[in-house]
């Protein structure tokens, strides 16, 4: 397999970084090819703007998705976006590795999605969900959070974790056509012992060695909706 | 009322910007005080990092939330964060005005939340949800999206809009203690006529003039959970 790990943490010694390093080691040892986009190290620009387009389809009024599509087709979109799209094109499996900030990804990773999931390649027209541009590729979230496991669930204080992550799991990855694997969550990380952290790394390595055995998450199929995207019932 | 509008759009002529301008006009005409943080115009830095702290509690290992709390208390946190926190402190109503990017806020606004919702002031320890630091203040999302209204709902292709927005509505605003008003959504904006856009602006103005009549969204109360945050049942 070819695996792209997109990693976002501001502290190189963090446990989130250790998860990334574990993934590189485990996947490489299993004979897979691994590339890493370390967004903080790259000082990745997360702000989608007209500056991403050297040439503009409409120089007077910027519609980001439209300029993205045209700029990607013509090769005039910003070089950092082109490079990241090429990495995603290359990979079979995309791993997003990050600390939960406000029940979501940190802004630098949100901006990676905003800028790199380009219209025309990742989605467009009726090409989304199971018709999305990335169909055939798998995606996995691996993340750390401060909360404990019992704080997530139907009756728990924060509700279901997968519901809280819906904009990423469904609204971004599944929307773009990725087969989305169950996320790997490292709970309570700032407060646990070194032994617990070591155990989490072992669990994560086990998970990475069993990717083919995982049941992917379920999302809508365009087959169930009509041309105007009403449910067929 | 004192109203802070945090606005994020890369195109000054956009309809999202027109919503912001409408809010300024309507609220000012009604005698309210209005301030605007125009994140693109400010070139707001959305990337939470160790660079936000002139002095570090631990210079060898950065835990962002910990340094945030200490840096905010000591006044050594980055000046742009201090200024934005002061604006939120000042306001009675916070409006986040943005285009939906990947079923969420654009990265520049995610980073405003990441950096400005400082530990110790917005939340901390058992101070979250109805005990959050911003209790007594109201918050409203106003946003534009490409999808049509029928694409959101229990049986719709994207599911419930409020579920898709849960990380912002519940995981950020309600978590920090804000009373969260029902969001104002402008659907299908890139494709509708000027007449439709004008109608949306009229509806939005009406909404802003009736803020006191709106029923806020419901979220968990810490009263329903024990000291370890298990449901009391």
From TrEMBL, chains A, B:
Gene3D superfamilies the UniProt entry points to: 3.40.50.360
Q: GO molecular function: any one?
A: NAD(P)H dehydrogenase (quinone) activity
Q: Which Pfam families match?
A: Flavodoxin_2
Query: Per the record, what is one GO cellular component?
Result: cytosol
Keyword Oxidoreductase: yes or no?
Answer: yes
Family matches, as InterPro entries: Flavodoxin_fold, Flavoprotein-like_sf, NAD(P)H_dehydrogenase_qn
| Flavodoxin-like fold domain residues | 1-205
Record keywords, A-Z? Oxidoreductase
Signal sequence, start to end: none
Q: Does the keyword Hydrolase apply?
A: no
Hey, which family's this protein in? Belongs to the NAD(P)H dehydrogenase (quinone) family.
Protein name in the entry: Flavodoxin family protein
